[in-house]
Amino acid sequence: MGETILLVEDDPDTARSLSRALESSGYRVTAVDTGGEARSIIEHVRPDLILLDLMLPDTDGLVLTTALKILTKAPIIICSARQEQVDRVLGLKLGADDFVSKPFDLDELEARIEAVLRRASRVREAPTAPPDQIRVGELLISQSRGTVTLAGQAVHLTPTEYRLLVALASRPEEVLSRESLGNLVWGYQDLGTGHLIDVHIGRLRLKLRRASRLAPVIVTVRGKGYTIGSSGSGGDGSEGAGDVAASSDRPTTLP
């Protein structure tokens, strides 16, 4: 049998049909119908991934997302009939790895499950690799520790903001499209990812700017995407700022 999935779904018909479908694809599935049961059983189940409904009888799924992230490192995919953009953005901001709106196509859901599990597997394997760092001017990213410092001060980012920053900083010669960033951050891209990338880029820019005037600049290249440069690269990060000029302080990957 394959990876273990904890399914948190209060609708019995949905839970039953989804469990059967996932088990037929080789997954082990444990289904619960309340947030309280999910919290109490998680240490015993030790899931590789959690499928979480937002509308539960005893708690809001967004609140439960935060609680589960404390209890386990398993990635979370939110599956919900609540399709408001604020739920999608807030769910990802709180640490969910993906958001799928109901009703969903089963093949698409399984593809997203596979993508999230692949990404989680790479993260688990990362500590065995040699420590590595990425520097952009005064910004230092420690990938082995998952930390970001700017002029020696810690910068606290959400998981999505961190992955965005790593994607940009590790590709100093590239302008990354929204589609490319969606694939690098979430393992897929669709019609909604471009807007989410813009939202997270805006928040990332603000956090870096507030942390230090020496923060690197994330520049929007009109019609193409985003790129990053040191604080002295000239752009202001706004729409149409243009390509970042090459400089000796460009991002470098350190051993």
Quick take:
With 255 residues, this protein is of the alpha/beta class.
Care to describe what's here?
The protein has 255 residues and is of the alpha/beta class. The protein has two domains: 123 residues, Rossmann fold (3-Layer(aba) Sandwich), CATH 3.40.50.2300; 122 residues, Orthogonal Bundle (Arc Repressor Mutant, subunit A). Helices cover 40% and strands 20% of the residues. The strands form three sheets. The chain has a five-stranded parallel beta sheet with strand order 2-1-3-4-5, sandwiched between helices. Strand 10 and strand 11 form a beta hairpin. The protein is elongated, with a radius of gyration of 20 Å. It starts with a strand and ends with a strand. The relative contact order is 0.10. The C terminus is likely disordered.
Give me the secondary-structure topology.
Layout: E1 4-8, H1 12-24, E2 28-32, H2 35-45, E3 49-53, H3 61-71, E4 76-80, H4 85-93, E5 98-101, H5 106-125, E6 133-136, E7 139-142, E8 147-150, E9 153-154, H6 159-169, H7 178-186, H8 193-211, E10 217-221, E11 225-229, E12 252-254
